[in-house]
Design brief:
Elements: E1 8-11, H1 20-27, E2 34-36, E3 40-41, H2 49-55, E4 71-76, H3 80-92, E5 98-102, H4 107-111, H5 122-135, E6 142-149, H6 155-166, E7 170-177, H7 189-198, E8 202-205, H8 211-221, E9 225-228, H9 230-234, H10 238-245, H11 261-274, H12 280-297, H13 312-336
Parallel strand pairs: 1-2, 1-9, 2-4, 3-4, 4-5, 5-6, 6-7, 7-8, 8-9
Helix pairs in contact: 1-11, 3-5, 5-6, 6-7, 11-13
């Protein structure tokens, strides 16, 4: 799934966002090396078989989306024994790699001994990773996703060491503390320092919104492996551009046209139907969630025109009207003053 000497681009786990339909949509781009699932919570008991299948339907199809993207199962919990048993069950059901979540900043998760709460207990990170590693066959990789610390940046050095000592094949680091949440600034420098000394691959994660951000992150961290989350959704063309920079796909000359959001969102709705995960009230909300993200951090400029729409059909009608408006606007702008353009210009 991840080789130390081969660049990789991973799709980040985002609770309530990167579920099976979204993983299928993102897999169709061909840009990602693998995806990490939303975390599966391990609390008082090992999750039963049907929970694994509901949460990660790709276990039925060779641990990959039907669009060809390998999927790594992520577990979250604080009990090393139950986490190990859950990893074994995941593998028995088809998982080919397991990731451990030590990064989720949600207060509810943290209050129940999960996610970033473990960053305050480095020895438990080693215990949990080690228990999972010992329980699985040697060929099944175990990895860990961490933040820089609970409230200090320097905590990442001990926590990363503990994950490596537990047997993690690689770690992913989000360049913020739990206390920082998702507030700026991002801190890539500690990721680079961990990579230099750790001896296992380090995947850099956090605030890669543009190709320029990616290049700065690569320069600062020295990493070969990267994870995209919100940035890949805010700009659906970003993953392909980053993958091309990494040499994973050939560069593509893109047309100078607005992104077809209606077509992209229809893909998500279609995959939701295929997974029988479509409810009209929920689906319109998550479509608007995607557009809100693209409005805040990407190039979708008309969220105000769709944010109050309450049906999927109404949302698509508004998007298709908007696409037509943008196309007419671009044609008008290009033909309004032809004398202002040199004869050899390309718009």
């Amino acid at each position: 799934m991840l080789h130390p000497d081969t660049p990789a681009l991973a799709l980040a786990p985002m609770e309530g966002v990167t579920d099976a339909p979204m993983r299928a949509v993102q897999g169709a781009t061909g840009a990602f090396t693998y995806a990490v699932t939303e975390f599966l919570r391990v609390s008082h008991a090992v999750p039963p078989r049907h929970v694994f299948h509901d949460h990660v339907p790709e276990l039925r199809t060779g641990a990959a989306t039907l669009t060809g993207l390998p999927v790594q199962v992520q577990l979250l919990g604080g009990d090393a024994g139950r986490m190990a048993e859950s990893a074994v069950r995941a593998h028995e059901l088809g998982a080919t790699a397991v990731d451990v979540n030590f990064g989720c900043p949600a207060p509810t998760v943290n209050r129940h001994d999960g996610g970033a709460a473990l960053l305050r207990h480095p020895l438990r990170i080693r215990e949990i990773v080690g228990a999972i590693r010992a329980a699985l066959p040697p060929h099944v990789p175990v990895s860990a996703k961490l933040r820089l610390g609970w409230d200090t940046l320097d905590a990442i050095h001990e926590n990363a060491t503990m994950a490596a000592e537990g047997g993690a094949a690689w770690i992913t680091i989000h360049g913020r503390t739990r206390v920082a949440g998702y507030a700026p600034p991002i801190h890539w420098e500690p990721i680079g320092r961990v990579r230099e000394r750790l001896g296992i691959p380090v995947v850099a994660n956090g605030d890669i919104w543009t190709v320029e951000d990616f290049k700065r992150c690569r320069d600062v961290t020295g990493c070969k492996h990267f994870m995209l989350g919100r940035g890949a959704l805010a700009d659906p063309r970003l993953a392909g551009r980053v993958a091309a920079e990494l040499g994973l796909v050939p560069p593509v000359e893109e047309a100078d046209e607005p992104f077809d959001w209606a077509a992209q969102l229809r893909n998500l709705v279609e995959w939701s139907h295929r997974f029988d995960m479509l409810r009209s009230d929920k689906n319109v909300s998550r479509l608007k969630q995607w557009l809100r993200l693209a409005s805040q951090f990407g190039s979708f400029a008309h969220f105000d025109r769709v944010k109050r729409i309450e049906s999927v059909s109404g949302l698509f009608a508004a998007l298709e009207c908007q696409t037509g408006f943008e196309s007419v606007s671009r044609i008008s702008a290009a033909t309004a003053a032809p004398s202002a353009l040199p004869s050899n210009s390309s718009a």
